[in-house]
């Protein structure tokens, strides 16, 4: 003899599924913008860290050798950095903008400072290229 199961135990109704999907969509719409903001902030922090590391390596090279390096690749080949880091905002290793020393600089060489080649503005409104 077959037992009849009550209707409530048979499964979810379409209305219940729609309500659950609406709640999930609402939570996702709240969380997604915060997630993307945190990704942008993490790229900015990584960019600041890479710039500080490269600038420190340039200064150490100049102090050790009495001249500025000619390129970022020279810094890497001389082991002042392991490798030229990727610009986290631009997403490329060749996006760095290498700045020459000022005309009145006492030390020779081609690389005095480095900036990001990424287009756009940071969360504080400044251009990435001005960091």
UniProtKB/TrEMBL annotation:
Gene Ontology cellular component list: type II protein secretion system complex
UniProt keywords, alphabetically: Membrane, Methylation, Transmembrane, Transmembrane helix
Leader sequence segment: none
Gene3D superfamilies: Glycoprotein, Type 4 Pilin
Top-rank lineage group of the source organism: Bacteria
GO biological process, one term: protein secretion by the type II secretion system
Keyword Transmembrane: yes
Pfam hit, one: N_methyl
Annotated TM spans: 12-32
Family matches, as NCBIfam families: IV_pilin_GFxxxE (TIGR02532)
Protein name: Type II secretion system protein G (GspG)
Species for this entry: Roseateles asaccharophilus
Classification lineage: Bacteria, Pseudomonadati, Pseudomonadota, Betaproteobacteria, Burkholderiales
